[in-house]
Please model this.
Amino acid sequence: MTDKLHEQKILIIDYGSQYTQNIARKIREAQVYCEIHPCTMTWDDIQNTKPHGIILSGGPSSVLEPEAPLCDPRIFEMGIPVLGVCYGFQLITHLLQGKVDPADKREFGRANLIIPETSLLFEDVKNETTVWMSHGDRISKLPTGFKASAHTENSPIAAVENPERKIYGLQFHPEVVHTVEGRQILDNFLFRICQCERNWKMDSLAESTIEGVRVQAGDSRVICGLSGGVDSSVVAVLVHKAIGDRLTCIFIDNGLLRAGERDKVEKTFRDNFHFNLVVVDAAETFLERLKGVTDPEQKRKIIGNVFIETFEAEAKKLGQFDFLAQGTLYPDVIESVSFKGGPSAVIKSHHNVGGLPEKMAMKLIEPLREFFKDEARLLGRELGIPEDILQRQPFPGPGLAIRILGAITHEGLEVLRAADTILLEEIKKAGYYDKLWQSFMVLLPVKTVGVMGDSRTYENVAAIRAVTSADGMTADWARLPYELLGNISNRIINEVRGINRVVLDISSKPPGTIEWE
Ligand code: XMP
Model:
């Protein structure tokens, strides 16, 4: 990535929305370079960035609050296009003499957007289109010099614009997948309004990234925690290509993995890639420490701590390491930036097992820091990582521990593992695995009555959770065929001792979450 390609950039100012990264991802998908900065960014810094366009993101605040995060109104005088999304839209209204009021009803989820007139921002978008709303406040008076360009049933002003000043605002989120024509709307902003060119490409990505690692590591030894997921696999292969046997990978079996997972990692990375791979069986330690624990956050904390302790102890045995290689992706970087610099909805904080680098006083190698997940996948493909690893559905760090509701037992793990194996087999057989973001079973601490042959059973309920999603931030429950659901249920009830009833989770996110804990 040369500097020339960074010359044209879109600046995203982050007000803490959980969707801010989606905006960046969508822009990069359109091959335009962009950067996310916290809303505390100074006026000087904004000017120095020399953006081609500015996007003000959504966020959890209300402009009606006294402490609401603002922006320097001089950005509206720079002559460059500005797009406000949700909170950003209300901010534009608020700062340019419009009026924002609390709505009587919060508007949440899908809405039908009506676009009565043509607008550059809605070019090639249907006159009626589905969009995703998520807001409490609404606009009751247009900002000076603006006109309303779209409405929904609950928001008479769902989009505003002042084309002469190139300022646009959207009450809804064009960056989430549920806004059906969001791609077109963002493309219109980038190419028709900001006049950007598609010039951000990741040429010979693998080569330059490997070279970067080689330079950074020098003659040092590097250690890496390998989980078998996409990110850590790509990082490990990159570093291995750069420094060979000076990389040691540690795979920790925490006893909370799915059936066959450990074997697969050993086979792929030890046998095929010839890694220096150390496999640690720490299942008993994890399960002992989790005994009787029912609170989800407590489970995560314990698992995080035991992971760090185990990793540290193992690394010590292996000698001196100067670097820890980690699969940090761009969204993780942005998340920590907005935590420090601005307001944020602390939604994903629990997802990362932090603390390892601080604890071990090692320098970090994070070759994926600039990449989004799909870009990491692309890189993995170039590196020859098998498709079944690259296309793996995400699996959470705490593993099956957050899919057994309540206390975790050996027996519960075995039952869940067996049910999950069946679900995955059936989903794959029916050709659905790649179409779903995640599909898994959840074991409930609820017993119900059933009959099996001539006798009465009194066993647990398990739930099928299958979702479609572009990034895990929003998700919809998957409409799986009845036939497939029937096969999964029949097989689980017949083959797995300990489950006599299977139910289906039909909640979307938000307001639900993908995992149950
Ligand atoms: P939720 O349940 O918050 O999940 O809708 C969104 C995505 O994150 C995964 N997830 C986790 N990943 N540690 C992880 O590494 C965690 O504690 C954790 N909790 C949820 C979840 O599987 C989904 O892909």
